[in-house]
UniProtKB/TrEMBL annotation:
Belongs to the thymidylate kinase family. GO terms for biological process: dTDP biosynthetic process; dTTP biosynthetic process; dUDP biosynthetic process. This is Thymidylate kinase. GO terms for cellular component: cytosol. One of its GO terms (molecular function) is dTMP kinase activity. InterPro entries: P-loop_NTPase (IPR027417), Thymidylate_kin-like_dom (IPR039430). Residues 7-185 form the Thymidylate kinase-like domain. PANTHER family: THYMIDYLATE KINASE, UMP-CMP KINASE 2, MITOCHONDRIAL. Keywords: ATP-binding, Kinase, Nucleotide-binding, Transferase. NCBIfam families: PRK07933.1.
Length: 210
């Protein structure tokens, strides 16, 4: 059974870059790697509804914290069997965002912390009720909200298909979300958390394979 490793962090933290670098390093070390990114835009109707809502589609849907969280959770639930198959056939399965993203952003939107009722609800929904595979490790790509915001702004200017959404445009939300991520990491929520900001992908790959 392969290791299920989740990369978490703010919008603009550099998760995709880390995932690509880590995939290369793991492959060079002889490991077989599979990767998925959530939300699965273009592959899941629930993910596409999320994207549309974040760009002001579907009326006031984006204003509902629990409604949006349910869509994110349903997207992952639809991928649960695929994740299990990938774990059975690869040494490492890398996920760009997973359950902790739902917990961090929803709690931040509600001005709650990691010990609040929303984080508990996400765990009960996605792990206990939907039966999503539990990660073996979280990699927290910790950057300042200011740096993450600047990167998200640059991406929106240079990539035609990546305009900033309602969450990325809310600087105060990003600040609160960073705090919730820190609390989840301190609690080793769901699985051990590792701060990987500035980590060398080759060294990180060696740690994951140890």
């Amino acid at each position: 059974m392969g290791r299920l490793v989740v990369i978490e962090g703010l919008d603009g933290a550099g998760k995709r870059t880390l995932a690509n670098g880590l995939t290369e390093a793991l492959t060079a070390a002889g490991a077989s790697v599979a990767a998925l990114a959530f939300p699965r835009y273009g592959k899941s109707v629930h993910a596409d509804l999320v994207k549309e809502a974040l760009h002001r589609g579907h009326g006031d849907l984006a204003d509902s914290v629990y409604g949006m969280a349910m869509l994110y959770a349903l997207d992952r639930s639809g991928a649960a069997d695929e994740i299990r198959v990938l774990r059975a056939s690869h040494d490492v399965v890398l996920l760009d965002r997973y359950v902790a993203s739902n917990a961090a952003y929803g709690a931040a939107r509600l001005h709650q912390d990691a010990s609040g009722p929303f984080v508990a609800w996400v765990r009960e929904l996605e792990v206990d009720r939907f039966g999503l595979p539990v990660p073996d490790a979280h990699l927290l790509l910790r950057v300042s909200p200011e740096v993450a915001a600047a990167r998200a702004e640059h991406r929106a200017r240079t990539e035609a298909d990546r305009p900033k959404d309602a969450f990325e445009s809310d600087d105060a939300l990003q600040q609160r979300c960073a705090g919730v991520y820190d609390e989840l990491a301190a609690r080793d929520w769901l699985a051990p958390w590792h701060d990987v900001a500035g980590a060398d992908p080759a060294a990180l790959a060696a740690t994951l394979l140890a």
